[in-house]
Input
Amino acid sequence: MTTRIAIIPARGGSKRIPGKNIRDFCGNPVISYPLNAARESRLFDRIHVSTDSQEIVDVVQECGFPVDFMRPESLADDYTPIMPVLKFVVEEYARRGEQFDEIWFFMPCAPLISVEDLHHAAALYEESKARALQCIVEYPVPIEWAYEKDETNVLKPVQPGMFATRSQDIEKKYYDAAAFYAYKSELVLGSTGAGSDMEFVGYLLPKNKVVDIDDAEDWAVAEALYRAQH
Output
């Protein structure tokens, strides 16, 4: 039987949206939504919030998710990639006698994912035999139509002439949905640095479940989408 851990990395000290990871989102701390989805899915043997912030610990424990240990300061700066954080958590649990086949991690500001998404992704992951899974979403327009803009607002096409190609004649492209990910344990434990962006199978999310929340406008859009779906 596959054993899994869900890790939610949530540093304190967000600069663009103060208190972002525990800010109220439609009546509850935003981090509580992926936590509850993980718990209700019954897929995970352990759910762990990796944080350096006692304030975040207090909030998630009030939501019913005890934090077994804190993240060290050396893994809590603005430049630490996610893979060393996952590796630290997995190694710490191994020292405590717990090991897992799959390491899943959830973005703390991913309130739109559902239990059904997790079940479907887990089935896809098992069927694919891939080493890692990533949520993806389709670009809303062909990236071949992209422009660069200089300081005088003059536009320069990234791929000159592609504007004349019909969208239906251009292969679809996808980007990271910033929701949740899954890795084989050996991939995390054997990683160096930031890891790799190769070897993923993609779980496609609909556009109405994807908002990368970086500012107040993103937050408002995410809340509007959530209310429309609940």
Q: What stands out?
A: The chain is about 30% helix and 20% strand. The longest strand covers residues 174-184. The helical segments are 32-41, 54-62, 82-95, 115-128, 185-189, 216-229.
